[in-house]
């Protein structure tokens, strides 16, 4: 089956005032003390967590210590020490080491405290709470692309999101975490989230910027597999990039959309795996998170070949929510006019952006709600037969809000929150994107977005 070919045009746009991470003074010198601590869900979320961190090259021992959290500092008798592993922090570069440890056989719905180190030099104590083993209400954060100017502009976004929802159970990222997988960009990424990453697990799917070109070949990030420890249940060759997690009644599926456009084997393996994971889902809800949008929101983008393959699969298995990035705008809707004949349950498609790169909206509007030139974070709550999505600007103001309510036949009803009718859409075209529109398209844009 023909899959698709992605035409990447994003490099045309320039964010005014941007300073490349490569041009800033380097702050990434590793020491004997653990830094860049990242908490991941590596398996069953009720009983397992993984942690990764970085040190200087001479620190060969990898240890994690964990105990059930107490009301005070008196838990030393209950500490368990777990051996980890180490490898180069960046593949092929011996200047720093990355470390990983897996904490398993944990109790459901229990708060633990942990630290990582080598026995002499330790991180501070962090803490996390495992999920319930049952179907219970929870909520999580969804973030679009960070990509560039992360320290300057994404720091306040992720800190605002955490301050607003400190009890979110994990953070879901829709790709393009960095503009290029090098030390300076990752330094900014970890500066922005710092200890938040060590406290709330991150589930991330790759974007096209997690790949780069070498000798006419697309090469995957040399840091990703050291930073993230995801379930190893993905298709052959895409482990740790495509995967799924069953969390309290929801199946979350990471679908590495860029890889399926770069490699023939990935295309074949992913399609088969995607069918199997969605067909054999015991949960009430299904959320797919991927980088490339099924329906584009930005002017000049329309991945028809990709959509022709992916959309029927999403519709066939009744996927409820599709969380995406890539387009540096905001939009959400079901696009019911283009639903296929064999659609079991029309998915709700969302595209969002967390970072400062901004594009203009597509004049071929399909969404119920849209936005441009705004940084956003989403809090998504799951409770029984209802998923509620609340979208906030970086200043903490509500921008969009809707619910999906599932009936006995598994069909969702979309209910838009009444307060949204009073919130003006922010849809201005960025100055640096205006040359992407003809005069006729600008007129159409004003008609569709600037009423």
From TrEMBL:
Residues 140-330 form the Calcineurin-like phosphoesterase domain. InterPro entries: Calcineurin-like_PHP (IPR004843), Metallo-depent_PP-like (IPR029052), PAPs_N (IPR015914), Purple_acid_Pase-like_N (IPR008963). Residues 1-21 form the signal peptide. It comes from the Bacteria. Residues 34-130 form the Purple acid phosphatase N-terminal domain. GO terms for molecular function: acid phosphatase activity; metal ion binding. Keywords: Signal. This is Metallophosphoesterase.
């Amino acid at each position: 089956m023909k899959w698709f070919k992605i035409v990447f045009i994003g490099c045309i746009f320039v964010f005014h005032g941007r300073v490349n991470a490569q041009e800033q003074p380097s702050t990434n010198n590793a020491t004997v003390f653990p830094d860049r601590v990242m908490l991941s869900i590596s398996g069953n979320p009720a009983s397992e967590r993984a942690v990764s961190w970085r040190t200087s090259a001479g620190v060969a021992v990898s240890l994690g210590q964990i105990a059930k959290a107490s009301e005070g500092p008196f838990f030393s008798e209950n500490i368990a020490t777990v051996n980890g592993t180490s490898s180069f922090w960046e593949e092929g570069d011996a200047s720093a080491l990355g470390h990983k440890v897996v904490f398993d056989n944990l109790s459901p719905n229990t708060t633990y405290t942990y630290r990582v180190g080598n026995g002499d030099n330790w991180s501070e104590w962090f803490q996390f709470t495992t999920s319930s083993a049952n179907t219970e209400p929870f909520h999580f954060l969804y973030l679009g692309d960070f990509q560039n100017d992360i320290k300057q502009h994404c720091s306040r976004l992720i800190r605002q999101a955490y301050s607003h929802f400190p009890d979110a159970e994990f953070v879901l990222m829709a790709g393009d975490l960095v503009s290029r997988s090098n030390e300076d960009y990752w330094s900014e990424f970890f500066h922005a989230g710092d200890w938040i990453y060590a406290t709330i697990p991150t589930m991330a799917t790759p974007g096209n910027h997690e790949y780069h070109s070498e000798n006419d070949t697309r090469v995957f990030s040399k840091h990703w597999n050291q930073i993230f420890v995801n379930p190893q249940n993905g298709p052959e060759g895409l482990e740790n990039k495509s995967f799924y997690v069953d969390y309290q009644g929801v199946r979350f599926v990471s679908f590495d959309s860029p890889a399926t456009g770069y490699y023939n084997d990935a295309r074949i393996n992913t399609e088969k795996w995607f069918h199997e994971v969605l067909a054999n889902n015991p949960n009430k809800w299904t959320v797919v998170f991927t980088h490339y949008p099924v329906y584009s929101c930005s002017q000049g983008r329309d991945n028809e070949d990709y959509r022709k393959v992916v959309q029927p699969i999403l519709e066939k298995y009744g996927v409820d929510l599709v969380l995406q990035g890539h387009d540096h705008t905001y939009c959400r809707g079901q696009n019911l006019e283009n639903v296929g004949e064999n659609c079991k349950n029309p998915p709700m498609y969302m595209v969002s952006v967390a970072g400062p790169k901004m594009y203009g909206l597509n004049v071929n509007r399909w969404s119920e709600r849209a936005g441009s030139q705004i940084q956003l974070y989403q809090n998504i709550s799951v409770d029984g037969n209802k998923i509620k999505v609340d979208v906030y600007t970086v200043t903490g103001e509500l921008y969009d809000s809707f619910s999906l309510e599932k009936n006995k036949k598994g069909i969702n009803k979309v209910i838009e929150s009444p307060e949204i009718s009073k919130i003006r859409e922010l849809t201005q075209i960025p100055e640096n994107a205006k040359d992407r529109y003809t005069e006729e398209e600008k007129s159409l844009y004003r008609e569709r977005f600037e009423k």
